[in-house]
Amino acid sequence: MDDETLKERTRETAGKLFGRGIKMDPPYLTWKEFDRELANDFSRFITGNLYSREVLSLPERQMAACAMLTALRARDELKLHLNGALNVGCDPRKLAEIIFQAATYAGMPAVNEALSAFREVLKERGEWPIG
Question: What does pTM read for this prediction?
Fold first, then answer.
């Protein structure tokens, strides 16, 4: 794939995932402060190559990301991806269920932290409480 096509896929996928909702800076902006070229390479790989693959849909990828980030207790990154999951049509109840499922593997402290982060995301989006 040529560079222009990859740039366009990156922009398109990033727009779908992170184009609205949460009020936080994406990690990309921090990366860029350190190394603009490397930040662009990361972004093209993650968003342009990996997230734009069609083996899994964007909602499926976001649900997997949210499960892993819950287990890792990566709160800020989780908030970003919960927002992205909602942006691509994931059901908030399913996202909550995914977080609860993590209790078996990551423990209740991880679940509690993730649910707190999810509530913050939903409040920022004006979607709290969930119906």
Answer: 0.92
